Amino acid sequence: MTTLSSLVDPQLLTEAKQLGGHQTTHETINVALKEYIRWRKRMEGTKLFGTIDFYPEFLEEIDKQSHLR
Question: Residue 56: pLDDT band by 50, 70, 90 thresholds?
Answer without folding.
Answer: confident
